[in-house]
Every structure is written in structure tokens, then in C-alpha cells.
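Action item from last meeting closed. Structure (233 res):
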């Protein structure tokens, strides 16, 4: 009799354990992003052909090489005036490039600008777009990353609850609690985690300054959220 009782108890425990491992659940994917105005932007600009097969002289203008050199100097001077007008700090760096026109090892200059006023930077960039200049954001920084990331995560959880409730109502199930949250965001989804982290591809050097991407820092996340549910009686 005792033996039969022990067997029954073990059987009941086994059924309970199995039931716990097969709890009903609903899974939802949620994705959102948030934009942050950077505290500081580092921007590089330069005179540069549309591609390495273009004649450099055509970019700065002039019917002769001498005219092109004069115009090139004028462009650099205008660029420096514009930077100083906005009171941005900058440094001038030299680099060399071989062009199809025969100007082998042509000396060009990059102006690396540092700006701590985002709205002023956008105005500067608009003025810069009127000049024969290429440019790229090489770095951007924010001290508010964690604050905005927290807001983004809170919004994602709220959205997940709404989606799960809609599914539950449609399938006659009640949401009990969150069982699991999994961050399935791509590594490239976010940029600018409070330090210098953004490095555009070299191909961006061939794009006009006014056409190159967003200047804000983007935080983008995707969550897979699992909710425990039970049937509505």
C-alpha cells in the first residue's frame, strides 16, 4: 500500500513539473529608435573630386592650371573665413592623392572642425554646401546616452505590453507577467554611446556635404519579449 502511495506521489510531481515546463506564452517583437542632438561634433571638410578619375582643376574652376591654383587658394581662404565666422575650433591637416589628370601626389588639405553647438553646426553646414567642398562627420558625442536609452527601453516595454494584450484579447488569453526580455538589436543599430564612436566609410568622401546622413546620434533597439498567459475562463 505504501509502495503504491509513493508511486502516485512521484507521478503527480512529474505531471506538475511537465506542466510548468509547458507554460503558455505570447512572444512579441518590438523595435524603436530615438535621436539625440550631440553635445559635440567633429567634422572634416576638404576640396575633393567626385571620384578619382575627375580632373581636380574642374572642381575648383579655371581654364589653366595657374587659374585652378589661384581658385583653390581662394576656396581654402573662404573656408577658413567661414569657420572663423562661426567661431569653431579647427586644425588643418595635409594629405596627398593621385588624380587621373596627372597631378600625381596632389597636396590637399582637410579642415577638422570641432563644434559644441548643434544648431550652429547645421547653419554652418548649410553655408558650406554652397562651396565646392566635400565633408563628413567623423565623430559625434553625447553625455545623455544612458538617459535616452532608458526612455527608449521603457517605451519598448510599454509597446510590447500593448501588442501582447491585443493578441491575448483576440485569442481569449490573459497576460500574467513578463517571462523573458531578449535584446536582439543589431550591433550597428546604435551610434554614439557617450564617446567618439562614429567613423563613416571612406566612400563618404565622395558625397556632397549636404547629402551625408543624419547628424543626430541614433539609438535603435529591437526586443523579443515573452509574456506568460492563461486562458480566460
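Sequence:
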Amino acid at each position: 500500500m505504501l509502495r503504491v502511495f509513493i508511486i502516485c506521489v512521484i507521478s503527480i510531481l512529474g505531471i506538475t513539473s511537465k506542466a510548468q515546463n509547458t507554460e503558455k506564452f505570447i512572444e512579441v517583437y518590438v523595435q524603436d529608435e530615438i535621436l539625440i542632438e550631440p553635445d559635440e561634433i567633429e567634422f572634416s571638410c576638404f576640396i575633393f573630386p567626385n571620384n578619382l578619375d575627375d580632373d581636380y582643376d574642374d572642381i575648383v574652376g579655371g581654364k589653366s592650371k595657374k587659374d585652378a591654383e589661384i581658385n583653390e587658394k581662394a576656396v581654402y581662404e573662404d573656408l577658413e573665413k567661414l569657420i572663423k565666422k562661426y567661431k569653431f575650433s579647427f586644425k588643418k591637416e595635409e594629405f596627398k592623392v593621385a588624380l587621373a589628370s596627372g597631378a600625381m601626389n596632389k597636396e590637399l588639405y582637410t579642415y577638422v572642425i570641432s563644434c559644441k553647438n548643434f544648431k550652429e553646426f547645421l547653419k554652418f553646414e548649410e553655408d558650406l554646401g554652397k562651396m565646392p567642398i566635400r565633408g563628413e562627420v567623423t565623430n559625434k558625442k553625447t553625455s545623455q546616452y544612458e538617459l535616452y536609452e532608458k526612455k527608449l527601453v521603457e517605451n519598448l516595454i510599454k509597446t510590447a505590453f500593448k501588442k501582447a494584450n491585443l493578441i491575448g484579447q483576440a485569442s481569449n488569453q490573459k497576460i500574467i507577467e513578463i517571462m523573458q526580455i531578449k535584446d536582439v538589436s543589431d550591433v550597428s543599430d546604435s551610434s554614439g554611446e557617450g564617446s567618439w564612436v562614429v567613423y563613416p566609410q571612406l566612400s563618404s568622401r565622395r558625397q556632397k556635404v549636404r547629402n551625408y546622413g543624419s547628424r543626430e546620434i541614433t539609438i535603435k533597439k529591437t526586443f523579443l519579449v515573452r509574456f506568460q498567459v492563461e486562458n480566460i475562463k
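Note appended to the action item: Residues 40-141 form a domain with the Alpha-Beta Plaits fold (CATH 3.30.70.260).
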